[in-house]
Amino acid sequence: MKKKPTKERIIDTALLLFEEYGFHAVTVDRIVKESGTSKGGFYHNFKSKDELLYTVHDSFITYILDKAEDAYNRYDTPAERLYETVKSFVMMFELYRPHVTVFYQESLYLSKEYFDNIKRKRNRYKQMMFRLVEEGIACGEFRKEIPVQITSMAIFGMTNWTYKWYKETGEYSIKEIANIYTDIVMNAVLTKEASMKTEYVRFFLSSNQDSIV
Amino acid sequence: MKKKPTKERIIDTALLLFEEYGFHAVTVDRIVKESGTSKGGFYHNFKSKDELLYTVHDSFITYILDKAEDAYNRYDTPAERLYETVKSFVMMFELYRPHVTVFYQESLYLSKEYFDNIKRKRNRYKQMMFRLVEEGIACGEFRKEIPVQITSMAIFGMTNWTYKWYKETGEYSIKEIANIYTDIVMNAVLTKEASMKTEYVRFFLSSNQDSIV
DNA sequence: ATTTTAACAGACTGACCAGTCGGTTAAAGA
DNA sequence: TCTTTAACCGACTGGTCAGTCTGTTAAAAT
User: Are A25 and B147 a contacting pair at CB < 8 A?
Assistant: First the structure.
C-alpha cells in the first residue's frame, strides 16, 4: 500500500471539498489539513489556489473531449455517433462526477488566462456536437424541425444536469441512466424512418451492455 | 419617473452582480455603491448578505411553482400539462434569467435554514413534474419505457440549462426556444398514438403565439 | 410643535484567509 | 563523503470584507 504523491492527494481532497462546499467556502488551510500536507507542500505543487482549480477543470475537459472525438471516429453515421457520444458522456459520471460539478459550478472563479484555455476546449466539444447534429439533419436521419444549436444545447443540458442530482446510492445505476438518456435523445431527434431503420442497431449496441431493468 | 425603493434597487443590482461574478466575488460594499445606497441602507433592509441571497431565491421559486400549478390546473391531459409546464418554464427566462442563474449557481451558499426553506419549494416543483409524467404514463399518453424520475430530471436539465447559454441578443428568441424545447420533449415522451392524436392540439396551442421562423 | 421612529449614511473593527518566507529533511548527484 | 536540490513544514503578514455602531435626516404620529 504505497502512499499517493502529495499532489494527487491534494487534488482528490480538494475535488470533494469543492464539490460539497464550493470553491470559495474551502480554504487552503482546510485542503492541506485534510490531505495530510502543509501550506509549504501545497504551494510547492501549485502556484496558487487558482491553479489547483484549473488542474481539476483541465483533467475533465481533456478526458471528455477525447471521448467525443473517439465516438465520432469509431462510428460513421450521425445516429450511431450521437448515441455513443451521449452514452459515453453519461457513463463518465461514474468516475468524474466531482470534476463535472466543479467544472460547471466554479468555472466563473478561474482567472482569465486559465478560463480562456478551458473555454477553448469547451468550445471544441460544443462544435463537435453541432457538427454531429448538423450532419444528422443533412443526411436525413435527424428531424429538420429542430435547429442545430438549440437541439445541441438541449442535449448538453439534459446530460450535464445529471451532476445536480445523481447519487451513487440512487435507484438507477449510471449505465441505466445512460440507456434512458440515449433513448430520450434518439426519440427526440430521429425521423420516423431513421427511427425504424436504426431500431435494430440500437438494440445491438445496448445488448453489449447490461440491459435495463 | 419615481425613484425605486432602496430594497428593490439593492435586489436588482445584486442580481446582476451575482449573476456575472458569483455571490462570493461580490462585496456588500460594491452592491451598495452600485445601487446608490450605503452600508446602513443595506443592513436596514436586510439582516445579512445571506438574507439578500435568500430573497432572490425565494422570489424565483415562488413564481415558477405558481406557474407550474397553474399549468396543471388549467389543462386536464398530461400531454397538455407537460407542454404548458415546459413552455411556461422556458418563457420565464425572459424575466427571470438572472434569478435562475443565481438560484442554480449560488444555492450552496445559503445558510441552513434558508436552504431548507428553498429546498422544500424546490421539492414541490419536482414532485409536480413526477406526478405529471406518472399520470402521462398511466393513461398511456407517454411511453412507458422511460422511468418517471429520470425522464423528469432530463426535462429539468434541458430547460434549466438554458441559463448557461441564453443571451437576449442571440439568434433565437425565448419564444422560439420554448417552442423547440416543447417539440423535443413531446417527441421524446409521447407514444406514437398520442403523438398523432395531439398533433392538432399542439398546432392549436402554438398558433396562439408567434410561429417559429 | 414636539416626540418618535423609520430610513438611511459612512467610518471603523475584528475575523478570516491566500500567499510568503525562512527554515528542515531526505533523496539524488558528483 | 560532501553538495545540491526537491519536497515539504508552519508561523506570520497584509489585504479584504461582512457586519457594527454612532450618528443624521425626515416623515409620521400625537
Answer: no
Look at residues A150, A151, A209, A144 and name the one whose alpha carbon lies nearest to residue A184: A151
Contact residues for A84 (Cβ-Cβ < 8 A; gap 6+): A71, A74, A75, A205
Contact B157 A157 (CB under 8 A): yes
Q: What is the pLDDT along chain A (213 residues), one digit of tens a residue?
A: 557 899 999 999 999 999 999 999 999 999 999 999 999 999 999 999 999 999 999 999 999 999 999 999 999 999 999 999 999 999 999 999 999 999 999 999 999 999 999 999 999 999 999 999 999 999 999 999 999 999 999 999 999 999 999 999 999 999 999 999 999 999 999 998 998 877 655 544 454 444 433
Asked if B187 and A143 come within 8 Å (Cβ–Cβ), the reply is yes
Here the cell at position B10 is: 439593492
Distance from residue A23's CA to nucleotide D10's C1', rounded to whole Å: 23
Among B40, B70, B53, B50, CA closest to B11: B53
B25 interfacial to chain A (CB closer than 8 Å): yes
CA B157 from chain centre, in angstroms, equals 11
Question: How many whole angstroms separate alpha carbon B196 and alpha carbon B141?
Answer: 11
Question: What distance in Å separates residue B108's CA from the closest CA in chain A?
Answer: 7
CA of A10 to C1' of D3 (A): 31
Sign, Cα dihedral of A120, A133, A62, B97: positive
Closest CA to A88 of A128, A35, A39, A32: A128
Establish if B108 touches chain A: CB-CB under 8 angstroms: yes
Instruction: Assess B146–A contact: CB distance below 8 Å, yes or no.
Output: yes
